[in-house]
Amino acid sequence: MPSMNPDGFEAVVKPDCFYSNGRENSNYYDLNRNFPDAFELNNVSRQPETAAVMEWLKTETFVLSANLHGGALVASYPFDNGVPATGTLYSRSITPDDDVFQYLAHTYASRNPTMKKGDQCKTKMNFPNGITNGYSWYPLKGGMQDYNYIWAQCFEITLELSCCKYPHEEKLPFFWNKNKASLIEYIKQVHLGVKGQVFDQNGNPLPNVIVEVQNRKHICPYRTNKFGEYYLLLLPGSYIINVTVPGHDPYLTKVVIPEKSQNFSALKKDILLPFRGQLDSIPVSNPSCSKIPLYSDLPSHSEATKPGLFLFLVTVFHIFVK
After folding, report:
1. Looking at residues 126-152, what average pLDDT do you find?
2. Contact between residue 130 and residue 117 where contact means Cβ atoms under 8 Å apart
3. Which end of the chain has fewer CB atoms surrounding its CB within 10 Å, N or C?
4. pLDDT at 309 over 50
5. In Å, what is the CA distance from 256 to each residue of 115, 128, 153, 154?
6. Which catalytic residues are annotated (predicted)?
7. What is the structure's pLDDT at 308?
8. pLDDT over threshold 50, residue 56
9. Given the residues 24, 49, 156, 160, the one annotated as active site
10. What is the pLDDT of residue 293?
11. Which residues neighbour 277 within 8 Å (Cβ) at sequence distance 6 or greater?
């Protein structure tokens, strides 16, 4: 998608490093504040560009994405908004897949010779190793990366590629050279983790089946698509996958993600559910969660969001080993 905001692009007559009158669409809405929000009600008029993206996300099983911005130099990962249950009392908001998101952000930033320094925009804050949790930078309601992760099952990070808000056209070759290696390496990460199909005993692929990793449940559960396919981005390690069909007991299976993907492919793990006969009770309607603040009813505190030595060591490991 070359631009989510063509109106804004056309509105800029003269590029400016510190201000862009192309931030909003022709209706004067900031589109990166226009999506449903999982943490608080975002009662704004949904714009046609936003609605088009939301519909587009339903047409494909997107797994990994990024959105490109100007005005800073950093790879920012979810969540952008949050509640105490996601760690806001500690000035951050982390997802159940925080290890994967930190790895993805570092994968991009570490291959950009300027971004990885973390302090090249003199008028901006410093970002260690060129990455940041979105909420730690500043809270943002209605952003696209949180929406994609929660409602579209797509891991998305935000890439701020230039200290200058709107660079001049002749700078494009410079930015391409700075970001080419990062972009290619980031795209490869779609092969992290495990993928496969879920079947009944008759070999029929099962749509809308919940496929989640134990202790890594999403507030809107990840489900198989219409072909019974699932995709879970995971770092190397051992995991228990919980497969849930309405009206049946959960089915558990263990997977071990190897250190290196094979032939640019995630680990392939098809799941044959031990159920007799055709599973015709699975709903075929769109199983998407309601576009409401899903996190609003969670407990106000979670042990998982406390800063700890383990998280610190994991971060250091990915920074210095990867």
Report:
1. 97
2. yes
3. N
4. no
5. 33, 31, 22, 22
6. 160
7. 46
8. yes
9. 160
10. 94
11. 200, 201, 202
